Amino acid sequence: MRADGPDQAKSSLSVLVVDDNDINQLYMQHLLRKLGHEAVAAYDGRQALDALASQRFDIILMDVQLPDNNGLDLTRIIRDGKAGTANAPDIPILATTAFALSDDRARCLEAGMNDHLPKPLRAETLRQALEDWSRAPAGNGSGRQAPFDLAAFTRESRREFATEMLALFLELAEPRGRALRQALEDGNLEAAVAAAHDLAGMAGPIRANRLHESMKAVQEACLTGDLDLCRAIYARADSELDAVLGAVRAHPYLLAKGA
User: Fold this and answer.
1) Rounded to an integer, what distance in angstroms lies between the CA atom of residue 195 and that of residue 176?
2) Which interval of the chain is the signal sequence (predicted)?
3) Closest to 236 (Cα-Cα) out of 79, 127, 86, 117
4) What's the rounded Cα separation, in Å, for the pair 234 and 85?
5) 20 to 30 A Cα–Cα from 245, which one of 112, 167, 199, 252?
6) How far apart are alpha carbons 34 and 104 in whole angstroms?
């Protein structure tokens, strides 16, 4: 196991890189250093579990094919809370694999991974993924990024537009969420794909990145024709939708509008 990283900046992340290929490890550590983050590399599942038991990380980059436990099984161990107490079971885990088929991505997400990044990783892809899935800065009490981001609309001149956008999101997303749930209960994959597609699109303008990716994953899973897989991934996406809807309802812009 090797540690490597620059002097940590205020926003620096601690990233566990799990990959059995030395060149891939070196390349990912190089990218992480360039982005201002600290990396610890693990060669296999045992080294990864040892690292997780002794050190806190913000995020994990997980190869799917490992010499002992594969990345899917290792993710399940972590999600089941069997990787020690230094890291929460819901720590963000991003799959890194040379396979980029929809089936592969869907099965990574079904195992509990948060996202799927195709190799070879590009710096901008990695930067955006870390931004989307990293934990929120210490002190905000959430342990994760906010469900959505209206930073681009904080100027007074744009708040009216942001308020209208949030109200419209509530008006449209709630019924589409119900439609998605009903479609999966009925086994109607075509309707589920359409509803998930709509919800992914609605998430974009308010920068609800986790919701966007979760609904894309539902859409991709349903397109495989595997209803059980689609329902399993939907369970996680539905939780994200609930989180975004709750945060939107409680947003000061809407509260002020209703006052």
Assistant:
1) 6
2) none
3) 79
4) 28
5) 112
6) 29
CATH 1.20.120.160 correct for 151-258: yes
- Among left, alpha and beta (phi > 0; psi -120 to 50; other), residue 34 is alpha
H or E element that contains 199? helix 189-203
Peptide bond into 137 cis (omega under 30): no
Q: Could you tell me which residues are beta bridge partners of residue 176?
A: none
119-131 pLDDT tens trace: 888 888 899 889 8
State in Å, rounded, how far the first CA of the chain is from the last one.
Answer: 56
**What's the pTM value of the predicted model, to 2 decimals?**
0.60
**pLDDT tens digits, 180-228:** 999 999 999 999 999 999 999 888 888 888 888 889 989 989 999 999 9
Answer for the pair 25, 48: CB distance below 8 angstroms, yes or no: no
Show the tokens assigned to 4.
């490597």
Rounded-to-integer distance, Cα 51 and Cα 45, Å: 10
Size of the chain in residues: 259
By three-state DSSP, how is residue 117 classified?
Answer: strand
Instruction: List beta partners, residue 16.
Output: 40, 60
Q: What CATH number labels 2-133?
A: 3.40.50.2300
Q: Where are the domains of the chain?
A: 2-133, 151-258
